[in-house]
Every structure is written in C-alpha cells, then in structure tokens.
Amino acid sequence: MTSQDIIWVIDDDRSIRWVLEKALAQAGCSVRSFESGEEIVDLLDRQQPDVILSDIRMPGVSGLDLLAAISAKAPHIPVIIMTAHTDLESAVASYRGGAFEYLPKPFDVDDAVRLVRRALEHRRRQKTAAAVAVDRAPEILGAAPSMQEVFRAIGRLSGSHLSVLINGESGTGKELVARALHNHSPRADKPFIAINIAAIPNELLESELFGHEKGAFTGAMQQRRGRFEQASGGTLFLDEIGDMPADLQTRLLRVLQDGKFYRVGGHDQITTDVRIIAATNQNLEKRVAEGRFREDLFHRLNVIRIHLPPLRERREDIPTLARHFLRQSAKELGVEAKQLAAETEEFLSHLPWPGNVRQLENTCRWLMVMAPGQVVRIEDLPPELRADESEAPADAWEETLRASIEQRLSRGEQNIFPDINAHFERVLIEAALRATGGRKQDAARRLGWGRNTLARKLKELQLED
Fold first, then answer.
1. Residues 116 and 227 in one domain
2. Quick one: 134 and 273 in the same domain?
3. pLDDT digit string (tens) for 359-368?
4. What is the CATH number of the domain that holds 448?
5. pTM score, whole prediction
C-alpha cells in the first residue's frame, strides 16, 4: 500500500468501522467511513476510492444493491463484501454481483488488511451481473472457515462450464454442492442429472450412461436414452466416480474429449454438451498409482477440485445444522420444532459423527419422533450416541468443556463464567437426583453439599418441581 491508497469502509456497525479505520491507517491508507450506502453512488461521480469494503446487509441500501450500482458506474473498483450471514447465498450473490472477495465476520483484522492489499494489487475491470437477493433458505449451511472456502469456490465458478471434482467422506453433502454448482451456473435452467456409479451393477452401467437401442441385449424391448442424452445442455453428476469399471472409464474419457458417443447397440453417433461434476470418497491419486483409475481421465475430471470437510472438522456448525434439521423435519411432520438443551448442543458438538451431516440429519429426524418432550436433553438421544459418551475416556468431559470455552472466547463472548458454571451445576444436580431417585437429602450428600445448599441451587437454577 502507498499513502495514495484511498479506502472506503461502509458498515452500519460503528465498532467494525473503527477497527478497520485504525488497521488500514496503520497500513498507510487514507480511510473514509460511512454508516450506510445512501450517498455512495452520487459520491462516485465526484471522487472514487481505490478499494471499497461494504457490509452486505444494512438499513436502506443493501450491500448487494450498492455492489450492483458500483459495478455499473465504476466497475474497475474492487469491492470486498463483508457479512455475518455466512451462507452460500451470500457468497454466490457477492461474486455474481462482481465482488472482488467475500469476507465473513468475525474476521481477523490482519486478514482484512491482507485482502485489501490483494485488491489494490489485483485491481481490474470486473464483468458483472446485477445481484438479486434470494429470501429462501440457504442450500448449504456453514460458518466454519472450511465451509467458507467451499462457498467461495461455488461463487467463483458461478459463470463457468468447467468440470469439477468434489471429494469428501460419505455423508458430507457432495451432491448438495454439485446441485449448488449447477444452480449457480449458466446451465441452471437446463437438466441436472445425477447417477451413483457404485449403486448400479457393472453390466447395466454402460446402458445407464449412454442408453441403448431396441434389441441391443436381452430385455432391451425399446430404445432408451442414457444419462448423457438426458443431461444434454445441463449438468451430469457422476457420484462415486472411483468405482467406475476400467472399460467404461475409456468410453467416458472419449465422450469428454469430443462430446460424441454411440448408444449400446447403436450405429448413429450422438452429440452431447454436458458439464461433468464428479464426486468421490476415495483417494483417486492413489487409485491412479495402483493402476485402478485412468490417469488421463483423472486429469480431465480434476480441472477444479472442491474438498468437503467431515463434520468433525467443522464442529462449530453442528448446533446450527441440528436446529435447521429439526425445523425441517418438523415442517415435514406438520408439528412444532423441538429445541435442543444447551448441554445437548455441547454434547452433539463433540461426537465423532462418522456418518457426517447425513447422520446428524437422520438423528434429528429420530428426535422429532422419539424424544418425549419439546426440549431435547442428553438422555433423550438415541442409545448409540449415548454409548459413545459411556465409552469416552474419563477425562473426555474436560476436553469437551475446554473446547466449549475456547469456542465461546473465539466468538468474543464476555462474562462467560456465570453461564458455564450454571450449566455445570445443573448437570451435577440433575445427575445426582437421577442417581438417588429424586431424594434431595441423599443427592445433597452425594454432592458433598448441605440440604439447604441444594435447595438454594435448585431455586437459583429453576430446577424445582
């Protein structure tokens, strides 16, 4: 940065403006702050900054509306969109509107300064389209940094026809990402066709992909269009691509190279135009090295790669996802959504979740039907999840507590001891009362308290009958 660099900061949060003013001034910038975007468009006629940082949702003119106006009047100015709404729609809308970058809150000030440096260094005209705010629920939820990278990738690919390879464990949501890539692409109004390679017998897979002519084999009573024809003009999602047989890998490579193929038993060449999105939970590089997957096909598919993290690597998203799935299940059942007790959220946030998001979703469906009350407590969880608790090391609760405290501190929360201590005492008392069949005097003795102390705690924590 030089002393000539002029940065405009637009945010209705005064503390955000103050922090950015100080940090950017220390970096040698001239900073001007605005609490709304009302005057920005007219001001651009008289003077223009080098970079603009704008919040996405503000009173009056929204960040996306402002972005569209800036793109129309001064498309050469890099715009960095800041938002606390860390969802896919915000990311995609930002990139589609021509944003240089998307910065989720809370952010590290050093990261923000580095991003402004990049914007200044990489200043260029953006080819943009007006962004439209979408009120529907986001397709993919996630505030974890690893999910923000996924959102960024989808946003950057929103104008592209490139092939994409998605890798991640089973249940992480690979098809959801594939659909998002399609929905935010130039092919959005064309078909999205998905096929799970591993779920179809090898002898039927060729016909599924390329179709067949009448009489091509026993049981082929009529002509059938394959998935490549069905997806023509749109997107073909090949799930579990690592399980594709070697002979079909060769045929697939040929189609990707020239866009032409024959139906099984056919003599007429068919031309197709599809975007390929493939997904796998396997290590394709290892399969290539072992000779089980064609290297040339791998490179043809691996133009852009998106990695989906397992749920255990984005634990901060688990409470949000659980609440979303409970609401979703309640809507399907036509009932009121159940709520998770604070200790239940903490417990769920520290389970291993080998089945990832799919397992969490199924657990929430189970809870909507089987949990006895409107507030779900740990004892209401499926037995197999509570079994994980009983098999945990004796000091696992300390790790859980430590992780919870670090998470709350990282969010900038203040005065956390009274709340954590109250939860801790509530768990102690409830466990002691269950162990003693509700006999308060015995429970107090087991806890090392006097009866009056227990009575006072019950009143303070509103645990009295």
1. no
2. no
3. 999 999 999 9
4. 1.10.10.60
5. 0.61
